[in-house]
Sequence to fold (161 residues):
Amino acid sequence: MQYTIRINGKAHKLEADPEMPLLWVLRDVLDLKGTKFGCGKSFCGACTVHLNGAPIRSCVTPVSTVGSAPITTIEGVAATPSGRAVQNAWLAVDVVQCGYCQAGQIMSASALLAKNPKPSDADIDKAMSGNICRCATYTRIRAAIKQAAGMPMTDSRDTLA
Fold:
């Protein structure tokens, strides 16, 4: 089937099986390699993108379901105020260790801050709970989210040891 999908502000015409996951459309059809394949079952969050501003798991989202809603990937998130703030904080706090999960982490964090610019610790925990980091950089992730939000670190879990 033929689809026109909007990614990072640009319309892309493509042909794909209706059940093809958005992840493979992004990576294999459109050559946007920043969104990662992790588990393929929506558990790890490595494939997180924004659909109409909300974080979704692209590994389980068929291309036929996205319609004309705007999609934002890690390649385009810096064009949004929350995405730019999160990416800058990620660098300042030195969050990345291996880096594999970080695109999904950044996408979830930027969606959180776009919706809730001053999240509580519980809000951060809830928004980030579906993103797994094998390197366990969770303390730095929390600190970066708070920095991006312009909030002081107030939780003992924020201490960067």
User: Anything to note?
Assistant: The two ends are 52 Å apart (CA to CA). The longest strand covers residues 2-7. The chain has a mean pLDDT of 94.
